[in-house]
Each structure stands twice: as structure tokens, then as C-alpha cells.
């Protein structure tokens, strides 16, 4: 059997319009640790995955990023704790799937740069 070329996703880039504002949101509101930053980029850690906030070098890269699904232990508690902060929720936490005794819950939100992401949790029903 041939060895896979790709070992893992090592980093996800998130385009931003205002690096200071975005860094404050991801670091302070979401609580992600800052690894390091420059005047055009900031690198944060989410588990074993690195997020790169960056000012786009060209207009063709200045678009919203893919949806990131951040795993949390308790989605309702996360939603309540972050409601009213610098986070714009799109709806409320809701169950999206149930497999045997496990329920998958999600709630979507916008960051300060217009990117849509989600919190998700898997709970025993």
C-alpha cells in the first residue's frame, strides 16, 4: 500500500480586513492562544491546528474563508457565555444529527471580519 502524501492539515488561513480587530476577537473572545504575529499576519493555536489570520496580499484572496467548526464541550454554555460579546450568532444552538445515543449540536456565528464559523459539540442524548 502506498504511503499518503498528506500527513495532516497543518494550518488554516483566515483572510482578515483589520488584523488588530481580528486578533483581538480570536485571542480574547474565542480564547485561542497567540503563537506569534507580524504586521500582516497572526498565528494562533486551536488544539494541534494552527490558524493564520492574514491581510490578503491581492484582491483575489480577499474573500471569506471556509467554515471552521470549533469543537466545544458544552455548546449551550458556550453560547450563553459568548452572547453579548463581540460575536454575532446566526440563530441558536440546535441539533443537526443524532446517531444512536450521540447528538451533534451546532451554532453558527460571524467573526469581526465577516467570516462564518460554527461551534459544535457531541452530546450523549
Walk me through the structure.
By secondary structure, the chain is α/β, with parallel strands linked by helices. The chain has one domain (11-124): 2,3-Dihydroxybiphenyl 1,2-Dioxygenase, domain 1 (Roll). Helix content is 15%, strand content 43%. The chain has 2 helices and 8 strands; from the N terminus they run E-H-E-E-E-E-H-E-E-E. The protein has helices spanning 19-29, 75-82, and strands at 11-15, 34-37, 41-46, 49-54, 69-71, 88-99, 102-110, 116-124. The strands form 2 sheets. Strands 1-4-3-2 form a 4-stranded mixed β-sheet, covered by helices on one side. A 4-stranded mixed β-sheet has the order 5-8-7-6. The longest helix is centred in the N-terminal third of the chain and has 11 residues, at 19-29. It is globular. The N and C termini lie far apart (40 Å). The relative contact order is 0.20.
Amino acid at each position: 500500500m502506498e504511503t499518503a502524501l498528506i500527513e495532516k492539515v497543518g494550518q488554516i488561513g483566515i483572510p482578515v480586513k483589520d488584523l488588530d480587530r481580528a486578533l483581538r476577537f480570536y485571542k480574547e473572545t474565542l480564547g485561542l492562544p497567540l503563537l506569534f504575529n507580524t504586521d500582516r499576519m497572526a498565528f494562533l493555536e486551536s488544539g494541534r491546528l494552527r490558524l493564520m489570520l492574514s491581510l490578503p496580499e491581492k484582491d483575489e484572496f480577499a474573500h471569506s474563508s471556509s467554515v471552521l467548526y470549533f469543537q466545544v464541550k458544552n455548546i449551550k454554555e458556550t453560547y450563553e457565555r459568548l452572547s453579548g460579546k463581540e460575536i454575532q450568532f446566526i440563530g441558536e444552538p440546535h441539533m443537526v444529527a443524532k446517531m444512536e445515543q450521540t447528538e451533534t449540536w451546532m451554532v453558527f456565528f460571524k467573526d469581526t471580519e465577516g467570516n462564518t464559523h460554527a461551534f459544535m459539540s457531541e452530546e450523549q442524548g
